[in-house]
Design goal:
Helices cover 63% and strands 0% of the residues. The protein contains 4 helices and no strands.
């Protein structure tokens, strides 16, 4: 597999993981009952984006490692999957 393909796959896994991690630990201004006038009550009080980026990177690296292990070991036949999902002849 080419390096650009590996980077693209990792980026996609990282991006999906980011959207899965973002909601964790969020307390909205409405829940804290302390919000600035003119802002959305659903806006987070403290977003903690740095911590979430670190967790996203850790989880995405773990998922990518598992995917790479499955791909390299041959436990799953990707050629059979593509022929099964490909166009009918």
């Amino acid at each position: 597999m080419q390096l650009t393909t590996v980077i693209a796959i990792y980026f996609l896994i990282w991006w999906v993981t980011l959207f899965a991690v973002l909601p964790f630990g969020v307390r909205s201004q409405h829940e804290g009952e302390d919000y600035a006038p003119g802002t959305d009550p659903g806006a987070p009080i403290i977003h903690g984006i740095g911590r979430k980026l670190v967790w996203t990177t850790l989880v995405a690296t773990l998922i990518f490692g598992i995917v790479a292990l499955v791909y390299r070991s041959g436990w799953f036949d990707f050629a059979a999957l593509t022929s099964w999902m490909g166009p009918r002849r």
